[in-house]
Amino acid sequence: MQESGETTSDGGENGASEAPLVSIVDDDASVRRSTQRLLRCSALRAEAFASAEEFLQSGRLPETDCLLLDVDMPGTNGLELQRRLSEYKHRIPIVFLSGRASEEEERRALQAGAASFLRKPVHQKTLLEAIHGAIKGPNPHARK
């Protein structure tokens, strides 16, 4: 079953193109699927990617309104993707979601401008609040 790159939307009267796009980058397929379902039910569009490389090659970077990003992934990890995006001046709000990150990784992510850093398992309401807050901005952790 491939959910990678699959777009979901609320299908409401306003049309999917007006809903913010959240790109989910997580190597755990069950996290990708459940998060896509949650976002679809919350009037957001969502695309899921199994790796940072897959996200970068997808062409979705310019239209992504929020990046939901795991820290610990094979290949390019979440912190490295955050660094790359910053290096190339892509200012996408990032919400990290991790089950295994250290406090040092959390500190680094927030200092580098992440909007939020959440630990798995996370309550749906908390996740949605973090995503909506990131989309609305401004990021209190971002460097000026």
Quick overview:
The chain is α/β, with parallel strands linked by helices and 144 residues long.
Short key terms for the protein model shown above:
single chain; 144 residues; alpha/beta; Rossmann fold; five-stranded parallel beta sheet; 5 helices; disordered N terminus; disordered C terminus
Task: Return the domain count.
Answer: 1
Q: Span from first to last CA?
A: 43 Å
Instruction: Enumerate how many helices there are, as a single number.
Output: 5
How many individual β-strands? 5
Radius of gyration: 14 Å
The CATH homologous superfamily is termed Response regulator
Task: Spell the H/E element sequence.
Answer: EHEHEHEHEH
Structural class: alpha/beta
Sheet with most strands:
5 strands, parallel
Strand order of the largest sheet: 2-1-3-4-5
Approximately what portion of the residues adopt beta-strand conformation? 15-25%
CATH class: Alpha Beta
> CATH fold name, please?
Rossmann fold
Q: Can you give the mean pLDDT?
A: 87
**Helix share of residues?**
25-40%
Uncertain stretches of 5 or more adjacent residues: 1-16, 139-144
